[in-house]
Amino acid sequence: MLTQPPFALFALTDLSTSTLNSVLQEAHDDPSVNNWWWYLATLDYRAAPQRKPDGTGQIGTPAPIDPSFSSPFVGKSLEDVARWLRGKPQSVDVDDRYFGVLDKQAEKSGKIAICRLNDPKVEKKVAWCILREADYSTLFLAGLDSDLDWNELVQLQKYTLEL
Q1: N or C: which end of the chain has fewer CB within 10 A?
Q2: What is the dihedral of CA 86, 89, 94, 98, to 10 degrees?
């Protein structure tokens, strides 16, 4: 039984459905995770995973996706993504703090930029992004530990998006 909600995944650059399917499938196939933990975000909150009354988690977007899928976030910024996450209704069941971004690096290497939102009071909406292989991304997120020194990790592995 899942209790962790899926993580929203935003394609900020135009990517082929083949690339999107590959990223989703590789993230799913990690033997230690084996779940659809990435939700390929659209503008429609009603299309997002919805909270269940019993508190069990939802799955994200399974591959293969519809061949006609086109990300509404192409050309958008991390600030736009942060607004989408902060503006989501309580019924939407995606993680409130961590999310993924697909940029040009996804087409080249299948990697996902894993990002964290700042506290809402902080002017800069997104705290940081770290690049991870798709097949390691969900394991990385599943292993988040509050005792980890994120500032040190980010300084060593900080990633700037390629849009």
Answers
A1: N
A2: 10
